[in-house]
Amino acid sequence: MLPTISDYQKIGIGLTGFGTAFLFLGMIMFFDKGLLAMGNILFLAGLAFVIGLERTFRFFFQWHKLRGSGCFFGGILIVLLGFPIIGMIIEGYGFFLLFSGFFPVVINFVRRVPVLGNLLNLPGISTIVNKLSDSSSIV
Predict the structure, then answer these.
(1) Cβ atoms within 10 A of the Cβ of 22, count?
(2) Per-residue b or e along 30-63, where b marks 16 or more CB atoms closer than 10 Å to that residue's CB
(3) What's the pTM?
(4) pLDDT 10s digits, 70-92
(5) How far apart, in Å, are the Cα atoms of 123 and each of 34, 84, 107?
(6) Can you tell me the distance from the alpha carbon of 134 to that of 67, in angstroms, rounded to the nearest whole number?
(7) What share of the chain is helix, strand, coil (3-state, %, to 5)?
C-alpha cells in the first residue's frame, strides 16, 4: 500500500521543484541574483512544507551539522546581498556538508539503476564514486 501524501506535502513538493528549477535557471543565466534568491527561498519553504517546520529546524540545527548549516544559510545570505557566485560556492559547500550522510545511500541506489549503474562503474568515475560511497571518508 502506498503512503498517503497530505496537501501540505504536495504543496511542498511543488515548491521544492520550483525552487530547484529557479536555482538551475539562475545558474544557467550567469548567476542571476533574482532567480537564485527566489530558488533558495522556494527550496527552503518547500522543504519546510514536506517534512514540517519542527523537523526542518531539527535537521539544520543539530550540533554536528552546524558548520554545514552556517555555510548553507550564509551562502543564501550572500546571494541575497548581491554576490551570487561567491554565495553559491559557499552554499554548495554547506549543502555538501549537510547532505553528505545521504550520499552513500543515493550512490548505492543509483548503482542498481541499469544505465546509470554502468556509468558509475567506468574506470575514472568508479574511484570517485567508491570514495563518496565509503561513509568513513566523508568529512
Answers:
(1) 21
(2) ebbbebbbbbbebbbbbbbbbeeeeebeeebeee
(3) 0.81
(4) 999 999 999 999 999 999 999 99
(5) 40, 35, 16
(6) 21
(7) 85, 0, 15
